[in-house]
Design brief:
Length: about 400
């Protein structure tokens, strides 16, 4: 623990000296434990300090520990509920692949689609896999036998694609989004279509169930996000603000907040009840292709065409960590169910698995950046070199 704190202090002091050099001010030493040190620093320096503290001290320090290489671009990744395996889909392959996380070995192969795979998911028990394809079908697979157990067919027109497919929280229904501007609800037992959600004026690129399964979110190339009543099929809300395609949507664990990612290079947080935008997460330099909430709902994960994935603090909107390692677009990013592992899938044909640092998990994540400053001895973390005259 002391080594973690000492390393953080060294980083803070370096930032202070660097700030002084850049800003041309003299250095003074601040020892005011009762005050918030952030109030004295310029915003850009504060942002860097926050990132260092949050990733190293409060549990956001993820590091790459395994790479799963394939032969085609990765379009989608999903963790099994027990966190022991990861499912991979590819635009360039007609099969989905299941990998063992511990060994890095390929375990299963699910064959049957006639075009590339856009989306993969597990049911709540982890015994069934779901794949969405550009052949405008979504398919259910028995994990143990690798057999196709059910197929949900859309229009299957020449230009019809299934962009996204997800299980309901109960695992009894499946929701799909298509290039035909609609989302569809399917019964797993019978394979029949239960409902259609119409209103978008362009492709439905992403779909998500609310935690209680009564509503659904859809994100579209028409730049809007819409909330639907699952039972009636009626549109309940419309979230407007993105200036380009909405590529990915997610519900917070409590169902009160929506997270959206767009080709406009931003991710946004929305209050679902009021339809108000809460935060705009800026920093990516390419389209955001994938978004996810951490299991505790305190962190957002984004994957982008700028070749990075990033972690964000939900409460403040601050960027916490940049995950570098891919050499091409990051198309999909997901948390494991315990929040300690991240999977990112890329057009560089690899999945990178990121593990939370053991030392970073020693302290509670409930603390904010300001309280992180008070960890350790007061003299250690409050002796921060800052330029005089900066407020």
């Amino acid at each position: 623990m002391n080594s973690v704190i000492n390393n953080t202090v060294k980083k803070l002091r370096f930032l202070g000296v660097l700030a002084s050099i850049i800003l041309g001010g003299s250095i003074k030493c601040m020892e005011e434990p009762k005050k918030n040190p952030f109030q004295y620093l310029p915003q850009d320096i504060t942002r860097n300090i926050t990132s260092l503290l949050m990733e190293t001290t409060l549990g956001y320090d993820f590091f790459p520990f395994k790479q799963l290489a394939g032969k085609k671009q990765v379009s989608s990744v999903a963790f099994s509920p027990d966190g022991k395996t990861v499912l991979r889909g590819s635009w360039g392959e007609k099969t989905a692949l299941l990998w063992d996380i511990e060994t890095g070995n390929q375990l299963k192969e699910f064959k049957g689609h006639i075009k590339g795979i856009s989306s993969v998911a597990f049911n709540p028990t982890g015994k069934t896999a779901l794949t969405g394809s550009y052949d405008d079908t979504a398919s259910l697979w028995n994990i143990e036998t690798e057999n196709l157990s059910k197929e949900f067919k859309g229009r299957q027109g020449l230009l019809d694609w299934t962009y996204s497919a997800v299980f309901s929280p109960t695992g009894k229904t499946v929701l799909t989004g298509s290039s035909y501007n609609i989302a569809r609800l399917w019964d797993i037992e019978t394979g029949k279509k239960l409902n259609e959600f119409r209103g978008h004026t362009d492709h439905v690129k992403s779909v998500a169930f609310s935690p209680n399964g009564t509503t659904a979110l859809t994100g579209s190339s028409d730049r809007t996000v819409r909330l639907w009543d699952i039972e009636t099929g009626k549109q309940l809300k419309e979230l407007r603000g993105h200036t380009s395609y909405v590529n990915s949507v997610a519900f917070s664990p409590d169902g009160k907040t929506a997270l959206t990612g767009s080709s406009d290079k931003t991710a946004r947080l929305w209050d679902i009840e009021t339809e108000n935008q809460l935060k705009e997460l800026k920093g990516h330099t390419g389209a955001i292709n994938s978004v996810a909430f951490s299991p505790d709902g305190k962190t957002a994960l984004t994957g982008s065409s700028d070749k990075t994935a990033r972690l964000w603090d939900i409460e403040t909107g601050n960027q916490l960590k940049k995950l570098r390692g891919h050499t091409d677009d990051v198309n999909s990013a997901a948390f494991s169910s315990d929040g300690n592992t991240i999977a990112t899938g890329s057009s560089d044909q690899t999945i990178i698995l990121w593990k939370r640092s053991a030392s970073s998990g020693l302290l509670t994540q409930k603390a904010r950046p300001e309280s992180a400053m008070k960890l350790g001895t007061e003299k250690q973390l409050h002796k921060i070199f800052i330029p005089t005259g900066q407020k």
